[in-house]
Design a protein that fits this description.
- Helices cover 55% and strands 7% of the residues.
- By secondary structure, it is an alpha+beta fold.
- It folds into two domains: 79 residues, Glutaredoxin, CATH 3.40.30.10; 113 residues, Glutathione S-transferase Yfyf (Class Pi), Chain A, domain 2.
- A four-stranded mixed β-sheet has the order 2-1-3-4, covered by helices on one side.
- Helix 4 packs antiparallel against helix 6.
- It is globular, with a radius of gyration of 17 Å.
């Protein structure tokens, strides 16, 4: 398999975590978003969306959208499972993942931040205020959902799930933008539990071959 991705892309980070948790080998193909490599003609042949990550399977099939890709991997390589065995558990994990993937991330990804600055002429301070506002609001919701559910070391139970694959990259980005992460005990405990595992350590941006590019 090949993973077209960018070391700072939180969506790419999610898929790297899943691959590492599953123990799956893959070729790392860097696509530097900040340099606009995803908009070059060569990458348009890889992804009509011009977004990362793209997971290319051994037969050449290409998968896009991180959460769909992770669920595919979970179906094809079921151990260890990233979704609970029960329907209610799966619904809860997907809901937690979607707080990050649908409520926080779309407002704060690189192309949105660039649009704010380059097209709407928003100052860097205002851009960062925008970022921190939506991250904090989303993580407060995430925390409330964790508090309303069963206790566990991770987001759902005592093993990492799809929700953890989404949470950890979001916390990395929140830390990079100096977001307020206080008052989120369940959320940060899940993050720390994840980061104690080799799979999460090996998938983090600083472990990527292009992290200094």
């Amino acid at each position: 398999m090949k993973l077209y991705n960018y070391f700072r892309s939180s969506a790419s980070f999610r898929v790297r975590i899943a691959l590492k948790l599953k123990g799956l080998a893959y070729e790392y193909v860097p696509v530097h978003l900040a340099k606009g490599e995803h908009r070059q003609p060569a990458f348009a042949d890889v992804s009509v969306e011009k977004l990362v990550p793209v997971l290319e399977l051994d037969d050449g099939t290409r998968l896009t959208q991180s959460m769909a890709t992770i669920e595919f991997l979970d179906e094809q390589y079921p151990e260890p499972p990233l979704l609970p065995a029960d329907a209610l558990g799966r619904a809860r994990v997907r809901a937690l993942a979607q707080i990050v993937g649908c409520e926080i991330h779309p407002l704060n990804n690189l192309r949105v931040l660039k649009y704010l600055v380059h097209d709407l002429k928003v100052s860097d301070d205002a851009k960062n205020t925008w970022y921190r506002h939506w991250v904090r609001l989303g993580l407060e919701t995430f925390e409330a959902q964790l508090a309303a559910g069963p206790a566990g070391r991770f987001c759902h139970g005592d093993a990492p799930t799809l929700a953890d694959c989404c949470l950890v990259p979001q916390i990395f980005n929140a830390q990079r933008f100096d977001c307020d992460l206080g008052g989120l005990p369940r959320t940060m405990a899940a993050f720390e539990a994840c980061m104690a595992l080799p799979a999460f350590q090996q998938a983090q941006p600083s472990a990527c071959p292009d992290h200094e590019a």
